[in-house]
Design goal:
The chain is α+β, with helices and mostly antiparallel strands and 598 residues long. 21% of the residues lie in helices and 25% in strands. It has 17 helices and 28 strands. Strands 3-7-5-4-6 form a five-stranded mixed β-sheet. A five-stranded mixed β-sheet has the order 12-11-20-15-16. Strands 13, 14, 17, 18 and 19 form a five-stranded antiparallel β-sheet that branches. A hairpin with a 7-residue loop joins strand 23 and strand 24. The longest helix is centred in the middle third of the chain and has 15 residues.
């Protein structure tokens, strides 16, 4: 247990071993002390201690219990599964990749916190990055110099700069994804330079007490209990593997959820007054507004489309070298029938008569989407205006009103693209010569760096495109033996496997191959639902089934791997090491799965 952790626990200590903690501080202290545990381990440990984070009466936490729990979690998670790669040079400044390689001893570089100098908030505020100054921030009574980390912030440099020269507790009150992983605290341990004057920390505590009274997540929608939750504030949850191919259209309640912020809540009056703005100012035509009734009166179209988070299967990258972001399995992908109006029709109604002329004569290259939660993304005008591109402004999902978790009242659906472009809770559409501002389009969030780059500080992100059209993917969801004999290690058995495959850009899946002997031999799967999609407009996944000869291992298991082939005859790569990137985006290596047969 390091002294930083002990200090956090002891800050409001009282005699007798009990620690009185306000809800926000208890959440921070617990996550800090358990910073080598997974979010599920932390949740389990909290449950075992009968901690209710929403009830202040449950924050009379016994120090001995909490410290013992944290110590056990430290001991059980010394290895995060990252494989050391000698060809990659670890930078002196902390990066997700470098802290992922640390052993237990090196993880706590500032254990003697009490020996660090004390700074006032005025001194911290002075170091706000202006005029070439360093960038300092405070958290939990510790002062951090984050200057060299700004470019590597997974949420983008624009977001972290908001807290320059100030405390980050108020920001993390909203951006609670920082509590879902050990990574933020492990990174920060390397940047500690001092302690904040206790009187200034008391003022921050008072501010947090006020903020706690207005919880931005108080009106979150109810979610299906079967979802595999990675974080609940904001909600990030994947469809369980066992349910992924149960039905071709994913039930709305089981559709994966990827949020960056609290879900917007609209009152009846808000819904009545809602207007979608179409901004054609860049064309000299001003702004037009459309009510929900206006949009529903237009010609309705339906598009069956698969949406996939760009970080799907990030956990596969993490087994090679640590990345930053939610450690998704294969379940951050789902398919639905979306109903709404064509984006090109709405743009035309607003005054965009000739998108080709707008591009060639007036320099309009992008269509930007603005969400109520502050999310911004864009696509090229070619995709937005293509009559065969099937981009829609959506108000229905699987024949029902679009639910809050998936963008009510309106969202964009951009088939064949990374799901981040399908902005939820839409409030404005804008034509522009330039792509959208913000970290989701221009920042590190959705840019795939080369495998050799673990530190983005010296990378010009402006020269790197953001993720748009998706690549090629497949997954295995069920496996069972076909024959009834009693196999021995080394024998071959037949295993029936089922799964899915999907390619971005509307590219049809033409084949799925499955191996049971690590690629020595292959069986070709039978394509099932989804195989009859229109040529070049295959926006949704394909289900497949395959009987695979597989070799039984010494442990009585068989290992299968799938790879898909699309209409351009792209094929999935065997391994993820040469596509690894620091943000963990786009893992489309062979999907590997294992099952016991003996």
């Amino acid at each position: 247990m390091n002294r930083h952790c002990l200090r956090l626990l002891a800050r409001n200590g009282v005699p007798g071993g009990s620690i009185q903690l306000k809800p926000w501080r208890a959440r921070f202290a617990f996550s800090s002390c358990c910073m080598h545990s997974s979010s599920r381990q932390m949740a389990t440990s909290a449950s075992s201690c009968n901690m209710d984070w929403s009830d202040s009466s449950d924050f009379d936490i016994k120090a001995s219990v909490l410290i013992a729990t944290a110590s056990l979690l430290f001991a059980s998670t010394l290895s995060d599964g990252s494989t050391k790669c000698e060809s990659r040079k670890t930078a002196d400044r902390p990066t997700p990749s470098s802290v992922g390689k640390e052993d237990f001893e090196s993880a706590f570089v500032y254990s003697d916190v009490d020996k660090l100098p004390v700074y006032t908030m005025d001194e911290v505020s002075f170091n706000d990055g202006t005029n070439g100054r360093s960038i300092w921030m405070t958290y939990g009574g510790i002062v951090y110099d984050v200057t060299d980390f700004i470019a590597n912030h997974p949420g983008g440099s624009e977001k972290i700069i908001m807290a320059a020269g100030s405390a980050i507790e108020p920001f993390w009150h909203t951006y609670r994804q920082h509590f879902a992983s050990d990574l933020p605290m492990r990174l920060m341990e390397h940047m500690a330079i001092g302690r904040l004057d206790p009187a200034d920390q008391d003022k921050i505590d008072e501010q947090m007490a006020v903020l706690q009274e207005d919880d931005p997540y108080a009106r979150e929608p109810a979610r299906h209990k079967a979802l595999k939750i990675h974080s609940d504030t904001p909600m990030n949850a994947e469809t369980p593997t066992r349910l992924l191919t149960k039905s071709y259209l994913t039930p709305t309640s089981l559709f994966y959820i990827r949020h960056h912020h609290p879900v917007p809540f609209l009152s009846e009056k808000d819904i009545h007054d809602y207007r979608l703005k179409i901004d054609l100012t860049a064309l000299g035509k001003g702004v037009r507004s459309f009510s929900l009734d206006d949009i529903r009166k237009m010609e309705k179209v339906e598009v069956v489309a698969t949406l996939q988070c760009s970080g799907n299967r990030r956990s596969g990258f993490n087994s090679f070298q640590r990345t930053s972001g939610t450690p998704w399995g294969q379940g951050a992908i789902s398919t639905a029938k979306f109903g709404g109006v064509r984006l090109r029709d709405l743009l035309k109604l607003a005054g965009l008569d000739d998108p080709i002329a707008a591009q060639e004569k007036q320099g309009i290259e992008h269509v930007r989407f603005h969400g109520m939660d502050g999310m911004m993304a864009s696509i090229g005008i070619e995709k937005a205006s293509n009559p065969y591109g099937d981009v829609i402004v959506c108000y229905e999902m699987n024949g029902e009103l679009l639910p809050r978790d998936h963008g009510f009242p309106l969202r964009i659906i951009v088939p064949g693209y990374a799901a981040v472009r399908s902005v939820k809770w839409l409030e404005k559409i804008e034509v522009s010569p330039t792509e959208a501002d913000g970290p989701w389009q221009r920042g590190l969030n959705y840019k795939t760096l080369p495998p050799c780059i673990t530190d983005a500080k010296n990378i010009d992100l402006r020269q790197m495109p953001s993720m748009t059209e998706a690549s090629l993917f497949s997954g295995i969801t069920t496996m069972k033996r076909v024959d009834d004999n009693a196999p021995q290690p080394g024998d071959r058995v037949t295993v029936r496997a089922n799964g899915w495959a999907w390619a971005g850009g509307g590219r049809n899946i033409v084949r799925v191959d499955v191996t049971g002997d690590d690629g020595k031999t292959w069986a070709t799967a039978k394509l099932k639902q989804g195989k009859e999609q229109r040529f070049g407009r295959a926006w949704a996944w394909v289900f497949w089934e395959c009987d695979v000869p597989a070799v039984v291992s010494e442990s009585g298991t068989v290992s299968l791997a799938s790879k898909a082939v699309d209409m351009a005859f792209n094929v999935q790569p065997e391994k993820s090491d040469h596509t690894w990137n620091v943000r963990g985006l786009g893992n489309n290596s062979w999907y590997r799965a294992q099952t016991r047969v003996a």
